[in-house]
Amino acid sequence: MKRYDLVIIGAGMIGLAHAWHAAQAGLSVAVVERSGAADGASVRNFGMLAIVAQKPGPELDSARAALEAWQQIAAGAGISMRRAGCLFAARIPEEMQVLEECASAQGHAFELVSGADLSHRAGVPLQADLLGGIWSPDAWKVDQRQAMAKMAAWLQRAHGVTFHFDTEARAIAGNIVETATGAIHADHVIVCAGDEFATLLPEAFAASGVTRCRLQMLRTVPQPATWRLDPFLLGGLSMTRYSVFADCSGLSALKAHQQARQAACLANGIHVIACQEDDGSLTIGDSHHYGDGAGPARSEEVDQLLLGELAALAALPEPEIAKRWIGCYAHLPGESALVLHPLDGVTAVTLTNGQGMTHGLSVARGVIGTLFGSG
Ligand SMILES: Cc1cc2nc3c(=O)[nH]c(=O)nc-3n(C[C@H](O)[C@H](O)[C@H](O)COP(=O)(O)OP(=O)(O)OC[C@H]3O[C@@H](n4cnc5c(N)ncnc54)[C@H](O)[C@@H]3O)c2cc1C
């Protein structure tokens, strides 16, 4: 029987983050993935390392530490990663007030941008009636479509991690992981199955209260080569979602405005993020529907709300939608990560704040350090 110090279940961002830290600590590591490649939230997101969105303090420290690890990994694995920056644009005075307050607060290097300068900052024409915005250099764009596959290949090639793709883990019994293709012996098992709570450790997940968030996403056809949106582009609905704005006194007036004028967006948990991919296409999202009942059905209304919010910021030269998809992540209100120790030698880790790309490498460093006494 194959034997490893550590077997990780799931080859998404969180599984690979644990594999990286464990391999660095000198452990023999195997990763078991039910699909032929990572198939969950990690390949369905924006690829945004959102340092900019974090409240100064432990959250920001965690995101910055993860970024350092990302830079090392991207260089080693050949993952496309650029410092895109992030532009929040205001359409109404209530949004502008929140942005101005946030720009003058400590902890982030925000630059106030006038309405006239917004298009220059964006790199593409934005709507002329926008009031202004704030820009930060602290957002990185990784190529989410390729990053997991490249990281897995590199972990195997350069760090000796073994991968069992197309292999579902069906049960964990003592030190044995039962898979569809045989048993694997593990001194320790870490379950990193994202929002999959039914197959492994269902009782432990049920007792934790963790549930699921479903997000709807779109991608356009490639835009013309002359149209290059440099930063992530976000609007007012993001200001009431991200913790970096949480202490702004203007937030209550903005929330009141949204409740009165953007009720359909709030009901669907919509805040618009747009970012341009290496091939020129634009990824656009997202909506948030919470709870186990949030099934996989796509909603045309949500698509139209998302596109309407984006149109208020920028008109696309090529608006045709080439792809629509759903992504899901684990959700536990008020918690950024869930770490369970349901059995001797078994740990389960899932991020519960929808920011696993940004924080996963820091969370995994903490888990591996605690379990194995590594740095
Ligand atoms: C639409 C969307 C946009 C997002 N945007 C961002 C963003 O821009 N920035 C950011 O920081 N975060 C973002 N997130 C959140 C981020 O993508 C997630 O937090 C992160 O990817 C979760 O990684 P994971 O490894 O836990 O889960 P997943 O990526 O879902 O991976 C879990 C893996 O486990 C495998 N698996 C499950 N059960 C088994 C089993 N029994 N045996 C074997 N394999 C199994 C699955 O096949 C899957 O590949 C977004 C999420 C979504 C859905």
Based on CA atoms alone, the radius of gyration comes out at 21 Å
CATH architecture of the largest domain: 2-Layer Sandwich
SS-based structural class?
A: alpha+beta
Q: State the CATH superfamily name of the largest domain.
A: D-Amino Acid Oxidase, subunit A, domain 2
Unreliable spans: none
CATH class category name of the largest domain: Alpha Beta
Query: CA-to-CA gap between the ends?
Result: 30 Å
Q: Helicity range of the residues?
A: 25-40%
- How many helices in DSSP terms? 11
Q: CATH fold name of the largest domain, please?
A: D-Amino Acid Oxidase, Chain A, domain 2
Global shape: elongated
Count of individual beta strands: 20
| Average of pLDDT | 96
As for the number of domains, it is 2
Bound molecules: flavin-adenine dinucleotide
Written description of the protein model:
By secondary structure, this protein is α+β, with helices and mostly antiparallel strands. It folds into 2 domains: 2-47 and 145-209 and 334-372, FAD/NAD(P)-binding domain; 86-136 and 211-331, D-Amino Acid Oxidase, subunit A, domain 2 (D-Amino Acid Oxidase, Chain A, domain 2, 2-Layer Sandwich). Helix content is 31%, strand content 27%. It is built from 11 helices and 20 strands. It has helices at 13-24, 58-77, 93-104, 118-122, 147-159, 202-208, 236-239, 251-261, 263-267, 300-311, 356-372; strands at 2-9, 29-32, 48-49, 81-83, 86-90, 111-114, 132-136, 140-142, 162-164, 169-173, 176-179, 182-191, 211-220, 232-234, 273-276, 282-285, 289-290, 321-331, 337-343, 346-351. The strands form 3 sheets. Strands 5, 6, 7, 13, 14, 15, 16, 17 and 18 form a 9-stranded mixed sheet that branches. Strands 1, 2, 9, 10, 11, 12, 19 and 20 form an 8-stranded mixed sheet that branches. Helix 1 (13-24) packs parallel to helix 5, helix 1 runs parallel beside helix 11 (356-372) and helix 2 packs across helix 5 (147-159). The mean pLDDT is 96. Bound molecules: flavin-adenine dinucleotide. Flavin-adenine dinucleotide (FAD) binds next to helix 1, strand 13, strand 18, strand 20 and helix 11.
